[in-house]
Amino acid sequence: MSAITVAKKDFRDAVRSRLLLGLTALFALFTVGGAALASWASGLFSEGGGESTIGLIFALQTPAGFLVPVIALIVGYGAIAGERETGSLKFLLGLPHRRRDVVLGKVLGRTGVVAVSILIGFAVGLIGLVAFVGEVSPVDYLAFTLVTVAFGFVYVCLGVGISAMTRSTTKAAVGAIALVVLFKALWGLLSQVLLYAIEGTFLPETFPGWYLVFNSITPDAAYGSAIGFVLRESQFTSAGAYESQGLIESVPLVAEPWFGFVILAVWALLPLALGLWGFGRADL
Fold it and tell me: Name one GO cellular component term (predicted).
């Protein structure tokens, strides 16, 4: 239960600092603002409630795929490195807490902050959506919200894992920024470079399976796959566009929508394991 104790303290600190309130307001504004922009730009909500909800989620997926990782990394990167710098980590470990408890407690506490802010923010936003859009499918919207919470958990694990392996918040921040740049910009560029190097063209008649696999294994692509699975809509997946246009012969296992949950689990557990290993060997 020691990890739970650390998590509770971390969550209470976030409430006292009004971090939770700020994130909740941000997600609520994001939800309503995203719906308003999508409705104004393309009239996505002119048909029935079920279709309008899918259109809304499709419009929200890309900005949520950027906003949630950035917020989760900001919340997570200083979790342990920050306490090292201030010296409070030695006091924390002086209590009956093992290093593993501290890392796991920080993940739980920071995930709680992100999850509660998403849940409350999206719930508040739903009120505005119903008033603005007219009709929203609560089941589909809840499924999207829960997958988004899981996505936030993955990036909290990445942030805390980085924090556990570094000695300063500066280095942890650099690591967090590097992750954002890698997944948001460099990964797509690298996939194009590899495609040209292996296939000799940027636009083959059919795209090879390895290309779809490579573009499906990032947390962001897995987030889209998971949404596509729970909503039974292939348009959210990285392979969906290629499949609808007949540009692939078959969808590899890794690019299947349900496999997105497996990839998200790997991206959560791997950095957490590395963080536990590095923190356990560190000289404080």
Answer: plasma membrane
Instruction: Tell me the two tokens of residue 240.
Output: 């969906």
Q: What is the dihedral of CA 226, 231, 235, 238, to 10 degrees?
A: 10
Angle (CA) 54-45-237 rounded to 5° is: 25
The least confident of 116-130, 145-159, 215-229, 258-272 is: 116-130
Which of 43-47, 59-63, 252-256 reaches the highest mean pLDDT? 252-256
Tokens of 222: 């897995």
Asked whether residue 161 is domain-assigned, the answer is yes
The range of the structural domain enclosing residue 41 comes to 2-176
pLDDT tens digits, 246-272? 788 888 999 999 999 999 999 999 999
Contact by Cβ (8 Å): 151, 70: no
Handedness of CA 146, 229, 268, 104 (dihedral sign): positive
Within-domain flag for 34: yes
pTM of the model: 0.92
Instruction: State the Cα–Cα distance between residues 279 and 51, nearest whole angstrom.
Output: 48
With b for 16 or more beta-carbon neighbours within 10 A and e for fewer, the 22-54 pattern comes to: ebbeebbebbbebbeebbeeeebbeeebeebbb
**Number of domains comprising the chain:** 1
Q: So what's the pLDDT on residue 284?
A: 62
Residues sharing a CB contact under 8 Å with residue 278, sequence separation 6 or more, in sequence order? 164, 165
Sequence-ordered list of residues with C-beta below 8 angstroms from that of 234, at least 6 positions apart, any chain: 228, 240, 243, 244, 257
CA dist 97 and 1 (Å) reads 10
